[in-house]
């Protein structure tokens, strides 16, 4: 009996301090590895965000269960959501569900606790943790804040359905009625602000005090702008109107009277300059936008700022902004200029590509010369020598370049510092790990490395298989990896365990 008690105690051991998983969900603490051995776990996955903290899947005696960072075993996988903390409606649905009591709707959490009482005629999850409910034809709302629902009635879509057919999104004090397929505008007091002339419900611009209206002139749609009071600020005589960001700056594509030109307006709808263009692009985070003159063969591009100042005259056949710099093509030659038009990378390369995906900006450029690739910064300084077999791959998450020289893969930081000399025959990210784990190969054998190329699992596997599982783990990766060892399929984890008893990720 004493021996049985000791065995039971070891299985139930919990710790005073929680284990601290790294960015891969892996725990390096020797005590955790001892726990795996003592409890005879056959596999242990990565710790991933759950409703109640972080949990990892484990396999014992062929059965799945879950483990928290204190060492507690938790059998219910409903602790997980498909993602990070609850923000999006998809994740909201994984944590809460609607229920009906008679003819009325409410919402409960997974433990059955009532979060929203069943007194509503309709209930619908909308977005950003918002639940809309309808009571006596009036639309109301609840917002999930720090795990609890709070009343949230100041919504874009709140209106009295007995009086109106909708409201103006982003302009919550304006409402619409529909008659003969046309809309009229009303204020909160119910006063009519327009006749029934609008083709669509007016729509507010994001982060703005204005909205768009549409009318029909003959057979052509015309666009105008209203303010928060419903007053017409720009008459609907334009073929198109768009907002382009950066301090409320607008483009007005005013093809008025057949004049195919574009005017740039400020946040008060005043013209910023006398110049007009055939097209104006969206302003980037540095307050710059591409402007165009002409069409097709006569097309020329330049740069303006949010004050409407023309920094670079439209003269280039091609212009692509990358932060405060731009790749341009002039008379068939490509180079990089700054926002004042000064050349910073000359026209001596076969190809030149800005490294810019919209969310990342480092003023870096891929360049090629005689079938070799490298990376330069905006000062034309070499970051990665032009000796790579192909265009290097940038890992934005870990701020590194993955590059190949003589068919061997290495890693460098974005400043050019070498992390790993060209070593591996193959090197690619394990699905769902954002570069924190990589499948590597030398000769016929595969292993797993971290983001710096350091081996976590040795080069001994016949293959390692990319598998996005159906497990409810963050980004589809659960730390249990399908592999083949000595021609035998198996599942492996980052602790060196190998499981040959059948597929785990079903």
Write the layout of secondary structure elements.
Blueprint: H1 2-11, H2 30-38, E1 43-44, E2 48-50, E3 53-60, E4 63-68, E5 73-74, H3 89-95, E6 96-101, E7 104-109, E8 114-120, E9 122-125, E10 130-135, E11 138-145, E12 148-151, E13 166-168, E14 171-179, E15 182-187, E16 203-204, E17 210-217, E18 220-227, E19 232-238, E20 240-243, E21 250-254, E22 261-265, E23 279-280, E24 288-293, E25 300-305, E26 310-316, E27 318-322, E28 325-330, E29 333-338, E30 343-345, E31 351-356, E32 361-369, E33 372-377, E34 382-388, E35 393-395, E36 400-405, E37 408-413, E38 418-424, E39 426-429, E40 437-442, E41 445-450, E42 455-461, E43 463-465, E44 481-485, E45 488-492, E46 498-499
Antiparallel strand pairs: 1-3, 2-3, 3-4, 4-5, 6-7, 7-8, 9-10, 10-11, 11-12, 13-14, 14-15, 16-17, 17-18, 18-19, 20-21, 21-22, 23-24, 24-25, 25-26, 27-28, 28-29, 29-30, 31-32, 32-33, 33-34, 35-36, 36-37, 37-38, 39-40, 40-41, 41-42, 43-44, 44-45, 45-46
Q: Judging from the principal axes of the Cα atoms, what is the shape?
A: flat
Q: What structural category characterises the helix and strand content?
A: mainly beta
Q: Rg, please?
A: 30 Å
Mean pLDDT: 81
Spans of at least 5 consecutive residues with low confidence? 1-12, 80-90, 469-476
In short:
This protein is mainly β.
Report on this model:
By secondary structure, the protein is mostly beta strands. Strand 40 and strand 41 form a beta hairpin. The model is unreliable at 1-12, 80-90 and 469-476 (pLDDT under 50).
List keywords for this structure.
single chain, 506 residues, mainly beta, 4-stranded antiparallel β-sheet, 3 helices, 46 strands, disordered N terminus
């Amino acid at each position: 009996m004493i021996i049985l008690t000791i065995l039971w105690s070891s299985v139930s051991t919990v710790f005073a301090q929680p284990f601290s998983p790294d960015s891969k969900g892996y725990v390096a603490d020797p005590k955790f590895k001892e726990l795996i051995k003592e409890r005879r776990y056959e596999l242990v996955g990565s710790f991933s965000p759950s409703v109640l903290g972080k949990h990892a899947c484990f396999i014992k005696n062929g059965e799945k269960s879950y483990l928290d960072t204190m060492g507690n075993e938790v059998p219910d996988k409903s602790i997980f959501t498909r993602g990070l903390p609850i923000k999006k409606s998809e994740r909201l649905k994984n944590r809460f569900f609607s229920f009906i009591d008679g003819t009325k709707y409410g919402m409960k959490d997974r433990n059955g606790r009532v979060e929203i009482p069943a007194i509503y005629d309709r209930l619908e999850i909308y977005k950003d943790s918002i639940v809309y409910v309808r009571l006596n034809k009036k639309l109301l709302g609840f917002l999930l804040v720090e795990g609890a629902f709070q009343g949230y009635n100041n919504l874009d879509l709140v209106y009295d359905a007995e009086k109106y057919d909708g409201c103006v999104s982003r302009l919550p004090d304006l409402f619409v009625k529909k008659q003969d397929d046309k809309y009229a505008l009303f204020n909160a007091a119910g006063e009519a602000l327009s006749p029934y002339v609008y083709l669509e419900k007016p729509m507010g611009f994001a982060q703005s005090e204005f909205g768009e209206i549409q009318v029909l002139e003959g057979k052509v749609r015309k666009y105008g702008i209203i303010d928060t009071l419903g007053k017409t600020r720009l008459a609907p005589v334009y073929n198109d109107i768009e907002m382009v960001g950066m301090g409320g700056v607008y483009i007005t594509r005013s093809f008025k009277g057949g004049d195919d030109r574009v005017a740039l307006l400020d946040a008060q709808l005043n013209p910023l300059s006398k110049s007009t263009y055939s097209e104006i692009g969206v302003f980037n985070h540095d307050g710059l936008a591409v402007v165009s003159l002409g069409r097709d063969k006569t097309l020329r591009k330049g740069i303006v700022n949010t004050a409407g100042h023309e920094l670079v005259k439209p003269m280039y056949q091609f212009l692509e902004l990358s932060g405060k710099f731009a790749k341009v093509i002039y008379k068939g030659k490509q180079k990089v200029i700054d926002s004042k038009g000064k050349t910073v990378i000359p026209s001596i390369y076969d190809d030149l590509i800005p490294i810019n995906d919209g969310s990342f900006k480092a003023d870096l450029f891929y360049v090629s010369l005689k079938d070799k690739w490298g990376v330069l910064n905006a000062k034309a300084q070499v970051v990665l020598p032009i000796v790579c077999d192909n265009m290097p791959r940038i890992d934005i998450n870990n701020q590194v370049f993955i590059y190949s020289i003589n068919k061997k893969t290495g890693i460098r930081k974005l400043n050019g510092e070498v992390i790993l000399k060209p070593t591996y025959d193959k090197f690619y990210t394990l699905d769902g790990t954002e570069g924190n784990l990589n499948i590597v190969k030398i000769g016929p054998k595969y292993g797993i490395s971290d983001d710096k190329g350091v081996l976590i699992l040795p080069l001994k596997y016949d293959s390692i298989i990319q598998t996005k599982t159906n497990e409810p783990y963050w980004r589809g990766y659960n730390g249990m990896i399908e592999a083949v060892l000595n021609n035998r399929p198996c599942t492996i984890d980052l602790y060196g365990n190998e499981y040959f008893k059948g597929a785990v990720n079903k």
